[in-house]
Amino acid sequence: MDEAFSALDPLIRREMQEQLVELQRKLGRTIVFITHDLNEAMFLGDRIAVMRDGRIVQNGTPEEILADPANDYVAQFVQDVDRARVLTAASVMEPPHATMPLSAGVRGALRTMRAQQTRALFAVENRRLVGVVTDRAVIRAVKAGETDLRRVVDASPRALPTVGPDDLLTDIVETAVEATVPLAVVDENRRLLGVIPRVTLLAALGNVPATTREIPIIQSPIDMVAEFTPLVDTVAGGAPTPGEPATEGAR
């Protein structure tokens, strides 16, 4: 099909594009579609061949072409594409570093938080995402003598926003903005596939390369120091600062 929809007005053109996608899904036939509209190509194509001077300069999925253009020509060709309507959660997610099995217990979670310099962990059991554990909850549990990590896990949707691997970025931006932890990418069995920190999402939308270790809790560093330093000293058994009463370290 050569420029099949180029002469149509925008509304009818969109309807015809959607009908073509549905028809291809039902018939399962390969369709070669020629277009100069890259947004149209990204919407219709499972694979796209970018041509220049009669030669294919790159062939790949829409995500591959957007994320890794083969040369400057392709990069300039795709620079105005609406990336949020093409890229999926799976294409931008990072490995989930900040995880903790429930069997590790409260003190195991605290040690992992210190080692990874993070303020929250994703709790997993048999590779399935159970909930999120914050440093506030862990510190309170240690002070109360609690050892079972299950008692401090928060599994509420507000505390633990999840998305599917095939969700488009345009559909998860609002969730990411409201979240206090990175978005957890899970499959239909709630297995944790990856995470999307807010900075990674913004970098993907802005076409800026970014690799980051996720920092789950988003909170003012000044507030965190003021609120948590005495409690952390208590848990760690550290010496009190001048002018403060001595506290007994947890053993």
UniProtKB/TrEMBL annotation:
Transmembrane segments: none annotated. PROSITE patterns: CBS. InterPro entries: ABC_osmolyte_uptake_ATP-bind, CBS_dom, CBS_dom_sf, P-loop_NTPase. Pfam families: CBS. The keyword Protein biosynthesis does not apply. Keywords: CBS domain. SUPFAM superfamilies: CBS-domain pair, P-loop containing nucleoside triphosphate hydrolases. Residues 93-149 form the CBS domain. This is CBS domain protein. It comes from Microbacterium lacticum.
